[in-house]
Write a structure and sequence with these properties.
This protein is mainly alpha-helical. The protein contains twelve helices and two strands, in the order ααββαααααααααα. Helix content is 78%, strand content 1%. The relative contact order is 0.13.
């Protein structure tokens, strides 16, 4: 081999060695990153858990402070909520009932409409129709709740008063309907995802046995997706229970222990907003009452989620 060939060979060997060194460094860098990834993920999970624990412990400690001034039996059994009166009464049931009124009205609106929309999108709608309806639902889900609140007060309430003259300007019916409209996209979107995830083979098998499209939907697809559907409904109703701005704007601020939806009400969240805007001084009994109400609200959502898990598990066992 002549001198020129030897030089070319040496250059090639050097280039190969450099490439090997670069590749080795990249591998070492990737190994180091892989070592750090589990720690980063653990830290992220820990932040979420610690934040939740911080919220819960704050509620517990401040609620205990409130119950040093007000008895637990009065809080849960008294039928009047007048914290700003001279002879203050702290019976939370009027606030609970106001919250339940809004949630029940919202459920009556959102559950059937949301499920019907989800079934239509997953089983009957064409791809073109789905591409039109889905973005509309997402836009509805993204509208700020304060906008919904003024929509309920300035549009829905006047329309309802033209039909029901006895309806008060602030009432439970109007915000309940609007909260139902607000959570409908959540039920529709999540339920549609659950329905779409059902294997196509199950539909085809049922159709091959002679079932109609409706029978396949109601007797095969819905039971198979019931876990996701229940989860979507519970999530939406939890949103309705915790809704603040719509009920604050259109619901009023009159706690009442009756089932009349045409009169002014006050929900637990609306009361928290009222006190948080400065109506009570720091460290007073009224101030600590918002934590007791918040703890009650937290227990409501906790029970709902536990109930949803139980229902989903029982339904899965049956099917």
């Amino acid at each position: 081999m002549n001198e020129e060939g030897v030089t070319i060979l040496r250059v090639q060997q050097a280039q190969y060695s450099i490439r090997e060194m670069i590749q080795e460094r990249k591998q070492k860098k990737h190994i180091q990153i892989e070592r750090f990834i589990p720690s980063i993920l653990l830290l992220t999970a820990a932040v979420s858990i610690l934040t939740t624990l911080g919220i819960v412990f704050t509620l517990i400690f401040e609620t205990i402070t409130f119950f040093k001034e007000v008895s637990v039996s009065e809080f849960f059994t008294a039928d009047k909520w007048y914290p700003f009166a001279e002879a203050a009464s702290y019976g939370v049931m009027p606030l609970v009932l106001g919250t339940l009124k809004i949630t029940m009205i919202a459920a009556l609106v959102a559950v059937p409409i949301g499920l019907a929309t989800a079934i239509y999108l997953s089983e009957y709608a064409s791809e073109k129709t789905r591409r039109v309806i889905k973005p509309i639902l997402e836009v509805l889900a993204g509208v700020p709740t304060i906008v919904y609140g003024f929509f309920a007060l300035t549009f829905v309430t006047p329309v309802l008063r033209s039909i029901f003259p006895s309806l008060e300007m602030f009432n439970a019916l109007s915000p309940g309907l609007v909260v139902g409209i607000m959570i409908t996209p959540m039920i529709a979107s999540l339920s549609e995802d659950a329905l779409v995830s059902v294997p196509r083979a199950m539909r085809e098998g049922a159709l091959a046995l002679g079932s109609t499209k409706l029978e396949v939907t109601l007797k095969v697809v819905l039971p198979a997706a019931i876990s996701g559907i229940v989860a979507s409904i519970v999530l939406a109703l939890s949103r309705a229970i915790g809704e603040t701005m719509i009920v604050s704007v259109a619901g009023g601020s009159t706690p009442s222990l009756n089932m009349d939806v045409t009169t002014s009400i006050q929900t637990m969240t609306a009361y928290i907003v009222q006190v948080s805007t400065g109506d009570a001084g720091y460290g007073t009994t009224i101030y600590y009452s918002i934590y007791a109400v918040g703890m009650t609200l937290f227990l409501f959502t906790l029970v709902m989620n536990l109930l949803a898990q139980y229902i989903s598990r029982k339904v899965r066992e049956e099917y």
